[in-house]
Amino acid sequence: MQRYVALGASDACAYLMGTMKYLFFDIECSVVSKTVAKICAFGYCLTDEKFQILEKEDLLINPQGGFHLTDRKGTQGLVLPYEYSSFKKYPTFLEKADKIYALLQDPDTLVAGHATMNDVKYLNFESKRFGLPSFVFNFADTQFIYMNRKGEFSRQFGLGIIAQELGVEFIAHRAVDDAYATMKIAEAMCKEEGISLPKLLEKYQIRMGRIENYEITQNTSAALVAYKQEQEKKKEEREKARAEFHVFVDREKRRRAKEGKLKNKRVCFSHPVELELPLSKRLLKEAFAQAAFFTSRAEECDMYVCYETEGGPRLKSVIERKATIFTPEQFEEYLRG
Asked: Among 39, 85, 143, 298, which one is least packed by beta carbons within 10 Å?
């Protein structure tokens, strides 16, 4: 096969000069694991800078193996909108490689997908499986662009959710249909901002992902970096507060009263309550004054203090134990009653 070479730079600035095309793509696989992904469909939508479609096709590929489809939890049940038995008659990835490499590595084309990192990983696996050269291209991600526009990095957004919010008609079907929906989402975001796709990336200071030498770097942005720094700062503050709380526990338990209304009762605080140091220290001190024991193991407590909005496995274990559950206000009232 030909050894295509991508000439693009590592960010959107490389695309701000001259005419160009946009390639939106989506991939379906017959099987995916940590080290293997057998591609069975490469859907793409190639447009000009005004999102006018130049090509739109679903390249169906013989994955040379059975279909073993699972969801994120590893449960069988995902169904692709294709007749599986017909895939044996289609070309293999090796036979379609020249076209796929040419589409993705055209230096005048900006490549994009939705949650693109996954699809690029699949391409990487297949190039290794067939002994092909590494793909070399930059890629944008419409999901990541959307997250930057919303300033929301704590969760991911599915193609259907974004399409609904932007008023894009979307019916999950073939890979080419997902590629088309991705294109329409990019078009909708550009229209709302009144700028081109490269300018949209530049506005939100997004550096595109890249694959080269079989190594993949993710999309990133100034906003994501700031978010991660803020999350790390909050984590450090939580760890510091938790350590301070447990030092306080060790000190105050030595002063625990021998008699009181909580004698022989084990009290536990939820993690969010523990981290509110003025509150947790006050409640714990009053509990010790009533002869309570403190435990950090929710499954062993008799009384559990948490906020009404909390959930999770610790609260579940408390409920299963049939321990008494208080809000901080209720517990304080109980102690002073």
From this structure: 85
pLDDT single digits (tens) 157-168: 999 999 999 999
Q: Domain ranges in the chain? A: 12-218, 228-336
Specify whether the CB–CB gap between 285 and 252 falls below 8 A: yes
Task: From 77, 59, 57, select the one nearest 126 (Cα to Cα).
Answer: 59
**169 within 8 A of 163, measured Cβ to Cβ:** yes
CATH classification code of 12-218: 3.30.420.10
Q: Give the phi and the psi of residue 43 in degrees, each rounded to 5.
A: -100, 140
The terminus-to-terminus CA distance of the chain in angstroms comes to 82
Q: Which class for 322: exposed (0-12), middle (13-18), buried (19 or more C-beta within 10 A)?
A: exposed
Would you call 215 helix, strand, or coil by DSSP? Answer: strand
Q: pLDDT tens across 263-307, in order?
A: 999 999 999 999 999 999 999 999 999 999 999 999 999 999 999
* Beta-sheet pairing, 206-207 with 220-221: antiparallel
Give the chain's residues under pLDDT 70. Answer: 1-19, 69-79
Of the CA atoms within 13 Å of residue 263, those in its CB half-sphere come to 5
Is residue 49 within 8 Å of residue 20, measured between CB atoms?
yes
Q: Strand, coil or helix: what is 210?
A: strand
Cα(199)–Cα(188) distance, integer angstroms: 14
Q: Is the four-CA dihedral 107, 138, 111, 95 of positive or negative sign?
A: positive
Rounded CA Rg of the chain = 27
What CATH code is assigned to 228-336?
3.40.50.10190
Query: Which of left, alpha, beta for 146 (phi over 0: left; psi -120 to 50: alpha)?
Result: alpha
